[in-house]
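Item description
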Amino acid sequence: MLARFAILFVAVAAVVSGSVLVSQAECARDYTVVGGDTCDGISASTGTPTFQLHFVNQVINEACTNLSIGQVLCLGVVGQDCTDVHVVQAGDNCIDIAKAAGTSLDTLLANNPNVNSACTNIYAGEVLCTASSVIDYTEHV
């Protein structure tokens, strides 16, 4: 019972803080939200994949409409921080993105699990991880 309460307390504290579900010691980099920020804008300006931003900051809703000015976001976890990125432009496709980055399509898709295998759901402004090796994303909750 006490263990369940402790886990619940940590989860509630993370949500109440409006920040991240990883400790600051685990964050490789962070960013403080300012007025007008969007998730794709933050990702593009900081070189952070869109998937990674959402994965590490699970308090951000899917539409990214719940950012708060002054909120501190973790941009990547030590050892799991992709900084090789490509900002998708209209007309881009995964094969060309992977080729330009010098990585394989399989690695591109593994590092961006939000992208479907046919790569039909990427959109202009999305930031993709183009690292040449697979980033081992794991749960931090």
About this structure: The chain has five helices and four strands. The first strand starts at residue 27 and ends at 32.
